[in-house]
Amino acid sequence: MNYILKMSFRNLARNKRRSFFSALAIAIGTALLLFMSATIRGEMRGSLELTINLRTGHLQIHTEDYKDENLSLKRVDMIEAPLEISSQIENITQVKAASPRLNASGIVAFKNETIGIQIIGIDPPSSANAIYREGLVDGEYLAADDREGVLIGLPLAESLNMKPGDSIDLIINTSEGETDEQRFTVRGIYTTDTPGYDKSTIFMPLAKAQTITRTENFASMIYILLHEMDDTAAVKEAIQAPGYIIEDWEEMNKLIIIVEQLSNAMMFFFNLMVLGVTSTVIMNTLLMAVYERTREMGILGALGMKARQVKALFLTEATLLALGGVMLGLLIGVPLVLHYANVGFFIGDMGLSAKSDFMFGNIIYPYPTFGDGISVSIAAFLITILSGYYPASQAAKMEPVDALQSNN
Amino acid sequence: MEIAKLTNITRVYTVGEVETHALRGVDLNIGKKEFTTLVGPSGSGKTTLLQLLGCLDQPTAGKVLINGQDATLMNRNQRADLRKGTIGFIFQFYALVPTLTAYENVELPMLLMGKKNHKSRVMELLDAVGISDRADHRPDQMSGGQQQRVAVARALASDPLLILADEPTANLDTENGEQVMDIMRKLNEETGTTFVFATHDPRVIKYAKRIVTLEDGKIIKDEAK
Ligand SMILES: Nc1ncnc2c1ncn2[C@@H]1O[C@H](COP(=O)(O)OP(=O)(O)OP(=O)(O)O)[C@@H](O)[C@H]1O
Ligand SMILES: [Mg+2]
To answer: What domains lie within chain B, and their CATH numbers?
Structure first.
């Protein structure tokens, strides 16, 4: 074994407790960064996935003038004979589901309360709506020919204290710019674990929604889900829908993508902060080691060891600490992240509504990637060695005569 | 040719405003096979002189020739190289590297010189100082006398021309002190390595072949025995 490596190793072993705690500091920093990077990535992915599932789909067909925000019900802004178009699109193999949706705004009146909500007319059997069917917590799902039933979200049901079978009055805007009021029955209560969305979205069968809004045979858009996100561009090419616009998830989720880039930049500064703390601990440990061993440095100098070799001795100690620390950090961090990636952790209602561009579920699932793990490990490793640089230079700077006169 | 030749050396230490003239115009030649002690009262400049002989320090004025090379013209790295092959040190405190075993301490100067296949030589040296049975012991597992003997073996490891020892027996009892001196004297006879000591210890002086007396930074007496 190389004598510098041997001496570094023995020096760390000489002060086991201190070496252990320094390595632990690196380990905690590494584990924290692993966790944070996976969490932010998970949150962004989760948000994108949710928004795609609940609102935009992978692809969407609508008219040029249709805007999601104003829920226009003018016929010129809508798609005619939507079921014919959607069943054609479902013939494309990469498409999982294509289904028309009619978006309208309305008000719930229940006892003395009124709450603004969004009404979505869906084609109940379509697998595009599986997320709502599977999210049913009480009552029944909608049948296509149901003329009175609606699905309401769990938070709305809780706040109005409603259960399946209860009656509910809906005031709905129509195509003619008027309102229509009708009594419906709560068929079922669903949750998508996205409180902001669930509390303000009510579903009814497309046919009924068309009748009540006076838009028979029209829909606001056709919502398309794919088996593989990567097929988006190819499917977009393949769809025939003359006179209409096809938008993909990237175009419809620009904000999320910008925020993701922004959070990557924030993560960079967070990394710097955590690594800065770790680096202080390491620098402190190594400086102590240098001052404790001043006399030893003098002896080594007298024996003919050069400044460069003394520096190498301390940098090797820093490297060994870095190796041990990062490995320990992975040992702690990887199982932790994998565990939470599986079970997720609860963050509650982020207070964003169904219409907002951004949707957060109430559970974050960290999403660890190999690349994040590698870059966090390398950053922690390099910062530790860099922190050893100043103490090592201090050690190398000492003149042997002065060092020999020291009491340490 | 001398192993070391000091010409008109002065060494002034400046601490703040205070100047201490540790050496004031010293001339000293050290030849092959010498076994010389530097004596003199405390503060007379013995340690300072040894440090200059060992190229650990630079004089304020004067010339230090080691084996014909002028150390005063060298930078730190060059002096480290010069020390490595020519000079061995023994200190008052048994300056061994605490994390290394006796064997590894003796081996270290050889490793620094890039020597290979040194195992038998290390054992030979440990044998010569009577410590081969402690080869795998760390300094804190050895007595002061044993540690100082390892230090002697280490000083010899680079096959130096000159070994410098600053009060090597000051921390040893009579028996151990004499044992260490016996060993050094024997090595001096057998290998011809030159030894220079600084000491107050009459037991060391007893062994000397030449006694150089310092007082107030000057050599006042230089006698051969
Ligand atoms: N690093 C230093 N800085 C300032 N003054 C010093 C330094 N080293 C030595 N001196 C002074 O130089 C003078 C000579 O010191 P030196 O250590 O050479 O004496 P010495 O003969 O070895 O004494 P002793 O027998 O006590 O070891 C003393 O007055 C001492 O105080
Ligand atoms: Mg002295």
So the answer is: 2-224 (3.40.50.300)
